Amino acid sequence: MNYNTHNSDCRMSNVKFVRGVVGDDSILEEDKPNIVVAGRSNAGKSSVINRLLGGQFAHTSSTPGKTQEINFFSIDDNAYLVDLPGYGYAKLSAARAEKLRKQMIWYLARSGAPIKLLILVLDVRRGSKGLDRDLLDIAAGEGISVVIVANKIDKCNQKERVAALRSLAEDVTSHPETVKQVLPFSAAKGTGRDELCKIIKSIYAN
Ligand code: GDP
């Protein structure tokens, strides 16, 4: 995919991969806001991150289940965009899936990282299920705001789009305080990219 953002009116500057962590790390103690991106494998999490950052930063899922690291990207010298490992690979063993789940819960609820926003990437045609819903519950419990990125909207015609967004909105009514927005998105076309960029910047802009 071409992630060029020349025509965008919201830019992220100085985007740098810092490191991947698997447990305790000094980066978690820094007071830069952590903006976290999570999603089921194949929902398009990596494509959303790359579209947002304007380059090939996150690895798209050619090797499902391989990465268990929590990847930190520095953005605008002011914040970290945090890429959680994708979950829900059919081929992952139960033991590894459980390890992954525990790692995400640890980071979100116990690591002490200053998490300001959880961006949950969903395939708009598939809605939320399983761990997607667990993450919403955890965010609600921790007082973390959530933006749902309803990705692959380009795959829907107008009628499907209305139906899919309606059913997604119903999916998330259990957490009205937590879910701030359901954002129609296409990593392929760039739809919703600037709005997501602005939401993120509003967190650390003075
Ligand atoms: P991840 O496993 O969640 O990181 O998903 P990837 O970013 O690797 O994307 C999975 C597949 O969906 C790839 O073939 C992408 O090209 C495709 N994809 C991702 N986002 C979109 C989108 O917005 N529209 C379309 N049509 N395809 C997408």
Short summary:
The protein is of the alpha/beta class. It has one domain: P-loop containing nucleotide triphosphate hydrolases (Rossmann fold, 3-Layer(aba) Sandwich). The protein is built from five helices and seven strands, in the order ββαββαβαβαβα.
Number of helices: 5
Question: What are the low-pLDDT stretches, counting only 5+ consecutive residues below 50?
Answer: none
Any idea what the CATH architecture is? 3-Layer(aba) Sandwich
Strand tally: 7
Radius of gyration: 16 Å
Question: Could you say which small molecules are bound to this protein?
Answer: guanosine-5'-diphosphate
Q: Spatial order of the strands in the main sheet?
A: 1-3-4-2-5-6-7
**End-to-end span in angstroms?**
33 Å
Helix content: 25-40%
On the 0 to 100 scale, the average pLDDT is 92
**Main β-sheet: number of strands, strand sense, barrel status?**
7 strands, mixed
- What general outline do the C-alpha atoms trace? globular
Count of domains: 1
Structural category: alpha/beta
Element order: H for helix, E for strand: EEHEEHEHEHEH
CATH topology descriptor = Rossmann fold
The CATH class is identified as Alpha Beta
CATH homologous group name: P-loop containing nucleotide triphosphate hydrolases
Strand content: 15-25%
